[in-house]
Amino acid sequence: MPKLEWDKTGERLYETGVRQCALYLLGEDGTYATGAAWNGITTITESPSGAEATAKYADDIKYVSMMSVEEFGATIEAYTYPEEFGECDGSSEIAKGVVVGQQKRKLFGLSYKTVLGNDVKGNDYAYRLHLIYGCMAAPSEKEYASVNDDPDAISMSWELTTTPVSVTGHKPTAQITIDSTKVDTTKLKALEDILYGTDTVAARLPLPDEVATLMSAGA
Description:
Blueprint: E1 14-26, E2 32-37, E3 41-49, E4 53-58, E5 61-67, E6 71-78, E7 92-95, E8 98-100, E9 108-118, E10 122-137, E11 156-162, E12 165-167, E13 170-173, E14 175-179, H1 185-196, H2 208-216
Antiparallel strand pairs: 1-2, 1-9, 3-6, 4-5, 6-11, 7-8, 9-10, 10-11, 10-14, 12-13
Helix pairs in contact: 1-2
């Protein structure tokens, strides 16, 4: 067995940044279509919860620990959002340029990339692709302030809850993460063509089983 080594060249990894965020509205047929680029994203904070142990006692001893269901949530912070997100934020257009709030909120999905860097190539090393399903956005707070000698743009944020989707052979999930260093580049390119669209095909968010089939084809 090889001896353990720490901090080898090329293995000092870190993760940073968030870019190429895309929004996908959930259709009535259960698919995520209507892809739209989301500009102005500053932060996406992933916030898993649950998976907490509850001890059960019997015969004067700890009998078993039962785990609660794990849930996935997130917070998005951005300077703006795509027009398509209005339906997800409880808005509805009643006339051109006239929008009413407090309407039914539509479910959606997201994809975005984070940078995977190392000590040799820095931020150019690789990336992780994140796919999120079953998102519901809570009402956000917007603070409007007078323009002054310390200018700043209004930043908006949304708390997201999720409803997991089915995955064959596994428990339902609301999150998939793909490491570009561990998957076939051709298959990854094919997946990104689906996520971001092409000159002839509209962008959409494939469900986990389709992602698994695509990424394991020919393996």
